[in-house]
């Protein structure tokens, strides 16, 4: 797939890719193994995809690591996932530094075990000055929770006089209250395992995102699969509610696309 890798870099990359890493448990169950083993294999896939993202020059990679709904899974599986996360942070920190990966976390982090959050805070701080791909981990994350929390914070600022008029509330202003403030919206969202839904992930941010679904379970996802998803993305025409001719004219004028133009 080396030719595809060179082809996608030459054609221009998406700025931000988000991935719903689905199918770890089912991958293990199909092999008669404990679901936790699937999550362990999934960590290896994360390493591979992060490395590939850095190699091709991707700016942002967001991984749906643990959803708010995942807290409802059996306690033994949740505890195992938290342990895997802590171990991975400790084990992979030096490699992330070598690759110049910058780590950020979005989600209701107050629900994470203290030890896990302590390790994450240290990783975020240590990688803050890195200039490679920004790896965004969505942990204890849910898009509806995020939007409600943003609305609460906006209301609090309105009561405090920081926002003085409802006419000030625009898409751009509201986005500043989301956990993804300062991060560009995903250009491409990939979901593994053959499922075709968002599962409460980045609902606001994916308004104009291109979706790519693949039947492979996450532990079987390879660098080549990432390259193929990007190539598929590059073959699409993103119109943002405009006609193809309007986009062509904007391109000829050297104007960017404003996604609020509908």
Automatic annotation (TrEMBL):
Known cofactor(s) = Mg(2+)
Question: For Mg(2+), which residues are the binding ones?
Answer: 22, 210
Q: Where is the active site?
A: 22, 70 (proton acceptor)
Q: Which EC number(s) are documented for this chain?
A: 2.5.1.-
Keywords in alphabetical order, please.
Magnesium, Metal-binding, Transferase
Molecular-function annotations in GO: ditrans,polycis-polyprenyl diphosphate synthase [(2E,6E)-farnesyl diphosphate specific] activity; magnesium ion binding
Residues noted as binding substrate in the record, renumbered to the chain: 23-27, 35, 39, 67-69, 71, 73, 191, 197-199
Which top EC class is given? transferase
Indicate yes or no for the key word Metal-binding. yes
- Superkingdom of the organism of origin: Bacteria
Q: Where are the transmembrane segments?
A: none
Tell me the Pfam families matching this sequence: Prenyltransf (PF01255)
Annotated coiled-coil positions are none
State any GO BP term from the record.
Answer: polyprenol biosynthetic process
Q: Which PROSITE patterns match?
A: UPP_SYNTHASE
Tell me how the cofactor is bound. Binds 2 magnesium ions per subunit.
Function (record text):
Catalyzes the condensation of isopentenyl diphosphate (IPP) with allylic pyrophosphates generating different type of terpenoids.
Q: What subunit structure does UniProt give?
A: Homodimer.
HAMAP family, per the entry = ISPT
* Family label: Belongs to the UPP synthase family.
Instruction: State what protein this is by name.
Output: Isoprenyl transferase
Q: Which species is this record about?
A: Odoribacter splanchnicus
């Amino acid at each position: 797939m080396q030719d595809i890798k060179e082809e996608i870099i030459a054609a221009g990359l998406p700025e931000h890719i988000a991935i719903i890493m689905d199918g770890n448990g089912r991958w293990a169950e199909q092999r008669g193994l404990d679901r936790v083993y699937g999550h362990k294999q999934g960590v290896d896939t994360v390493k591979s995809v992060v490395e590939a993202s850095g190699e091709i020059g991707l700016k942002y990679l967001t991984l749906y690591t643990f959803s708010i709904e995942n807290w409802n899974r059996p306690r033994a599986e949740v505890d195992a996932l938290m342990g895997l996360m802590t171990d991975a942070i400790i084990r992979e920190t030096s490699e992330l530094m070598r690759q110049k990966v910058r780590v950020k976390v979005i989600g209701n982090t107050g629900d994470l075990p203290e030890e896990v959050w302590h390790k994450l805070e240290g990783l975020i701080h240590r990688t803050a000055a890195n200039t490679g791909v920004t790896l965004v981990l969505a942990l204890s994350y849910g898009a509806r929770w995020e939007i409600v929390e943003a609305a609460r914070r906006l209301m609090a600022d309105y009561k405090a006089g920081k926002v003085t008029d409802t006419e000030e509330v625009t898409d751009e202003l509201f986005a500043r209250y989301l956990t993804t403030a300062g991060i560009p919206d995903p250009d491409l969202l990939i979901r593994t395992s053959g499922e075709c839904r968002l599962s409460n992930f980045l609902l606001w941010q994916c308004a104009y995102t291109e979706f790519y679904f693949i039947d492979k379970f996450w532990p079987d996802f390879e660098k080549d699969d990432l390259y193929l998803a990007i190539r598929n993305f590059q073959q699409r025409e993103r119109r943002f509610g405009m006609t193809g001719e309007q986009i062509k004219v904007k391109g000829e004028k050297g104007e960017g696309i404003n996604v609020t133009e509908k």
